[in-house]
C-alpha cells in the first residue's frame, strides 16, 4: 500500500508544525510521497510566505524597497533551520533568489520559492529525497497541466524505494520556465503525484478535520462528514462550500483514488473520505440523509412572462443567445406554463442588465419582464435523499414553518441535490432551520 500526503501552509507554518508533520509521516510507512505548501501563518500577526513574496514583487514593480518584507521571510526559514538542527544552505538559496529579483524579475519563479524552500527543509528533516517540482510537474503552453508528461517525469525521477518530498503549487512549461498554479495549487500537485503512482489513498492534511455538514461560521459545532462522493463534493463546491478545487479532484477521480482530508493538529481524527462510491461503507454505517447544506448570496432572477411560453418552440434558444452574446453563464432555468426565469450571479450581469432586459423584451415580445436582485441559492445535497419519499416537501415545509419565502426550486433528476432560491437575508436562517430539522434531531435519535 502507498499514500500521497499533502500538507497545507498551516501544517508547515513553523518548526513545531514541522515536528507534527514528521510524527504523522513516520507513524505510517505507507506515507511515501510528500507534497508541501509554503509556510503559512503561525498566528494572527504572522503572514503567509507566498503573500509576502507577492508583496515583494509589487514593491519591486513600483521601485519601493522590499528589504524588510524579504528579511521577514529569511528570518522565518532561518528559525526553522535553527530549531530543527538542519544543515541546509539557506543563505546560498536566498542569495540566488535575490539575484533573480535584482536582474530580471520572474514573478512565477519568485512566488514559488516558498514551496521550494519549505520542501528543501522538510526533505532534510525527514531524511527523504527532494525533487524540484519544476523538474517533474509539466504544463502545456496554454497553462493547463500536462498530466501525461508529468506522470512520465515523476516515474523517471522518483525512486519508489525512498520517501520523497515534492513542493506543490508550481511546475514548468516545456521550455523550462517556472509556472505557478492558482491558489490551492499544492492540492493539485498532490493529486497529480497520486495519479502518477496509482497510490491507494491521497491524504490531504490541513487545519480542519475534514468537511462539515454546514459552515461552522453559521452552525456551531456542525456534524463532521465521515465520507462524501465526488459528485456530492462538486455540488457542494459549486454552491459555495469551501472544499477542494475541481483541478485537484480530477487526477485522482480518474484513477478512483480516495481523498482523505485530515487535520495536522488532530491526527487522531479520521477526517473526511472522498470516494467514487460510498455504498459499501454506507451499508456498515448509514449516513445522514443530508450530506451537506450550503449556499451563496447575490443572485439576480430575471422572470419573463408570456402566455403559453412553454409550448413555444425555440424560445429557450433565443433567451440563451442573448446571455451568450454578453458572455454570461446561467445558474438555473425555472420554467412554468407562462413564465420563464433565468438565475445568474449578480456580479456577472449588473454591468449589462439594462441592455439584456431590453434585448429580451425586443426579441421575445414578452407580456412582462421582472428583475429581482438580492437573491440567494441554497443547496441541500445528499446521496441518500433519493431513497426518502417526500424529502423535497419536508424541506419546503421546514422553511415555511420559519416564514421563509421560497422564490425558486430546482431538483436534479438524480435526486441528489435540491437547490432553493430565497432572499439574501433568509439564507442563514434557512440553513439553520434545515440543519436543526434534519441533522440535529436525527443526531439525537441516533
UniProtKB/TrEMBL annotation:
Gene source species: Lactobacillus delbrueckii subsp. bulgaricus
Residues covered by the ACT domain: 380-446
Enzyme Commission code(s) on record: 2.7.2.4
Gene name of the encoded protein: lysC_1
Cited PROSITE patterns: ACT, ASPARTOKINASE
Residues reported in the UniProt entry to bind ATP: 6-9, 206-207, 212, 217
Functional note: Catalyzes the phosphorylation of the beta-carboxyl group of aspartic acid with ATP to yield 4-phospho-L-aspartate, which is involved in the branched biosynthetic pathway leading to the biosynthesis of amino acids threonine, isoleucine and methionine.
Homology family: Belongs to the aspartokinase family.
Amino-acid biosynthesis keyword on record: yes
Any single GO BP term: homoserine biosynthetic process
Metabolic or biological pathway, per its Swiss-Prot or TrEMBL entry: Amino-acid biosynthesis; L-methionine biosynthesis via de novo pathway; L-homoserine from L-aspartate: step 1/3; Amino-acid biosynthesis; L-threonine biosynthesis; L-threonine from L-aspartate: step 1/5; Amino-acid biosynthesis; L-lysine biosynthesis via DAP pathway; (S)-tetrahydrodipicolinate from L-aspartate: step 1/4
Catalytic activity: L-aspartate + ATP = 4-phospho-L-aspartate + ADP
Assigned keywords, A-Z: Amino-acid biosynthesis, ATP-binding, Diaminopimelate biosynthesis, Kinase, Lysine biosynthesis, Nucleotide-binding, Transferase
Protein's name according to its UniProt entry: Aspartokinase
Pfam families attached to this UniProt entry: AA_kinase, ACT_9
Binding-site residues for substrate, renumbered to this chain: 50, 115
GO CC annotation, single: cytosol
Family matches, as PANTHER family: ASPARTATE KINASE, ASPARTOKINASE 3
Gene Ontology molecular-function annotations: aspartate kinase activity; ATP binding
Amino acid at each position: 500500500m502507498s499514500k500521497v500526503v499533502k500538507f497545507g501552509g498551516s501544517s508547515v507554518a513553523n518548526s513545531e508544525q514541522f515536528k507534527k508533520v514528521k510524527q504523522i509521516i513516520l507513524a505510517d510507512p505507507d506515507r511515501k510521497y510528500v507534497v508541501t505548501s509554503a509556510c503559512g501563518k503561525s498566528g494572527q500577526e504572522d503572514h503567509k510566505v507566498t503573500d509576502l513574496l507577492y508583496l515583494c514583487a509589487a514593491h519591486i514593480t513600483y521601485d519601493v524597497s522590499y528589504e524588510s518584507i524579504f528579511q521577514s521571510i529569511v528570518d522565518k526559514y532561518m528559525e526553522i533551520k535553527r530549531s530543527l538542527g538542519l544543515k541546509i544552505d539557506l543563505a546560498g538559496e536566498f542569495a540566488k533568489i535575490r539575484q533573480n529579483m535584482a536582474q530580471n524579475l520572474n514573478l512565477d519563479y519568485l512566488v514559488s520559492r516558498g514551496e521550494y524552500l519549505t520542501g528543501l527543509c522538510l526533505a532534510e528533516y525527514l531524511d527523504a529525497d527532494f525533487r524540484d517540482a519544476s523538474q517533474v510537474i509539466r504544463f502545456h503552453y496554454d497553462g493547463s497541466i500536462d498530466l501525461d508528461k508529468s506522470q512520465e517525469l515523476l516515474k523517471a525521477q522518483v525512486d519508489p524505494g525512498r520517501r520523497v518530498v515534492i513542493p506543490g503549487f508550481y511546475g514548468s512549461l516545456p521550455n523550462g520556465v517556472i509556472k505557478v498554479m492558482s491558489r490551492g495549487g499544492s492540492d493539485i500537485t498532490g493529486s497529480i503525484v497520486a495519479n502518477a503512482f496509482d497510490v491507494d489513498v491521497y491524504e490531504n492534511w490541513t487545519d480542519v478535520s475534514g468537511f462539515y455538514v454546514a459552515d461552522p461560521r453559521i452552525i456551531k459545532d456542525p456534524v463532521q462528514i465521515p465520507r462524501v462522493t465526488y459528485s456530492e463534493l462538486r455540488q457542494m463546491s459549486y454552491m459555495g462550500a469551501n472544499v477542494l478545487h475541481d483541478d485537484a479532484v480530477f487526477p485522482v477521480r480518474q484513477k478512483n483514488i480516495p481523498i482523505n482530508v485530515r487535520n495536522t493538529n488532530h491526527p487522531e481524527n479520521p477526517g473526511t473520505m472522498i470516494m467514487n462510491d460510498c455504498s459499501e461503507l454506507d451499508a456498515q454505517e448509514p449516513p445522514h440523509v443530508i450530506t451537506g447544506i450550503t449556499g451563496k448570496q447575490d443572485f439576480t432572477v430575471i422572470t419573463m412572462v408570456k402566455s403559453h411560453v412553454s409550448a413555444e418552440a425555440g424560445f429557450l434558444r433565443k433567451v440563451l443567445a442573448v446571455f451568450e452574446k454578453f458572455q454570461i453563464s446561467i445558474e438555473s432555468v425555472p420554467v412554468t406554463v407562462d413564465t420563464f426565469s433565468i438565475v445568474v450571479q449578480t456580479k456577472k450581469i449588473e454591468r449589462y442588465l439594462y441592455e439584456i432586459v431590453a434585448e429580451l423584451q425586443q426579441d421575445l415580445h414578452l407580456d412582462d419582464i421582472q428583475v429581482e436582485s438580492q437573491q440567494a441559492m441554497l443547496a441541500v445535497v445528499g446521496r441518500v435523499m433519493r431513497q426518502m419519499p417526500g424529502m423535497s416537501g419536508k424541506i419546503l415545509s421546514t422553511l415555511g414553518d420559519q416564514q421563509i419565502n421560497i422564490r425558486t426550486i430546482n431538483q436534479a433528476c438524480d435526486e441528489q441535490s435540491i437547490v432553493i432560491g430565497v432572499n439574501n437575508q433568509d439564507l442563514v436562517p434557512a440553513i439553520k432551520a434545515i440543519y436543526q430539522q434534519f441533522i440535529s434531531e436525527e443526531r439525537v435519535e441516533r
